[in-house]
Write a structure and sequence with these properties.
Helices cover about 0% and strands about 20% of the residues. The protein contains one helix and 17 strands. The chain has a seven-stranded antiparallel β-sheet with strand order 9-16-10-13-14-15-17, with no helix packed on it. Strands 7-6-5-8 form a four-stranded antiparallel β-sheet, with no helix packed on it. A hairpin with a 2-residue loop joins strand 13 (about 160-165) and strand 14 (about 170-175).
């Protein structure tokens, strides 16, 4: 982590990820980038549907390969780059047939190393293989839910999924949340954990840096008027005044189960995620 001398009030607590010595390129590969409109939290009528979004620095979208359909073709990591649209580091990967793609990189890999997507690929960080070929206790990321359905699980910085068991054509995976669920053993996964594990330790330090990221200010519900929020109104500082915590639209946010009792994947969940508040 990079920390600053306390020359100002904001610098006193600022801690950001160190890119020097990690990244090898400052500009993205133009052929793999496109322009796009960022979400501003508004619907087609211009009404705010997601709070605290808007503004931010202009970004280019890097087209990341999450399908991994270049099976059996070795690839070489050419660059390690920063992606403003996600928390992990990405890199340009050049396959033996000359095609270049952006991949989400695991921690520990360096430019110049080779990667392989194959059923018999060696168990080294970055390589991709079938879940049934991966031994119990291995950390994986970019995990598929359906065979050849594209990476869906464990794609955020520092995240990984642990292979717990292989049984009856199903692989049991322990999610970052603590939930254990079953996935087809013929689904693919990449070995290792997502890069930039220090991302969760950063301290933005000042409001301006949040605005650069497209995060608008948050106003406390208790500071609003009664017409604007269930917590609003009252003289001086007031308590919540409601039995359960709610959003400004009256939706309960704590103490209510949100998962559908008839969700299709309920039969695949072996153990629910742990309640961190439970003692």
């Amino acid at each position: 982590m990079k920390k600053f001398k306390p020359t100002t009030k904001s610098n006193r607590h600022t801690a950001i990820v160190t890119y020097r010595g990690v990244l090898t390129a400052s500009k993205p590969l133009k052929s793999l980038t496109t322009g796009f409109t960022r979400g501003t939290g508004r619907n087609a009528f211009g009404r705010i549907t997601s709070q605290h979004k808007g503004g931010g620095h202009k970004r280019s979208y890097r087209e990341i390969d999450f399908r991994f359909d270049k099976v059996g073709i070795p690839a070489k990591i050419e660059t390690i780059e920063y992606d403003p649209n996600r928390s992990g580091f990405i890199g340009v990967v050049c396959y033996a047939d000359g095609e270049r793609r952006y991949n989400l990189l695991p921690k520990g890999v360096k430019a110049g190393e080779t990667l392989l997507i194959a059923a018999d690929a060696p168990l080294k960080p970055g390589n991709r293989t079938l879940l049934k070929k991966i031994p119990v206790g291995t950390f994986v990321y970019n995990v598929e839910l359906q065979p050849m359905g594209g990476a869906r699980i464990a794609r955020s910085a520092g995240n990984y999924v642990e292979v717990v068991a292989n049984n009856e054509g199903q692989t049991h995976l322990k999610m970052p949340s603590g939930e254990i669920r079953k996935v087809s053993e013929n689904a693919w996964a990449s070995i290792g954990a997502v890069s930039n594990e220090e991302y969760k330790l950063r301290n933005l330090g000042k409001a301006g840096r949040s605005r650069w990221l497209g995060i608008r200010p948050k106003v406390r519900g208790t500071a609003m008027n009664p017409v604007d929020h269930p917590y609003g109104g009252g003289e001086g500082r007031q308590g919540r005044g409601t039995k359960r915590p709610k959003t400004r639209h009256g939706k309960v946010t704590g103490g209510r189960k949100t998962r559908s009792p008839k969700k299709y994947s309920n039969i695949l969940v072996v153990a629910r995620r742990k309640n961190k508040r439970a003692k």
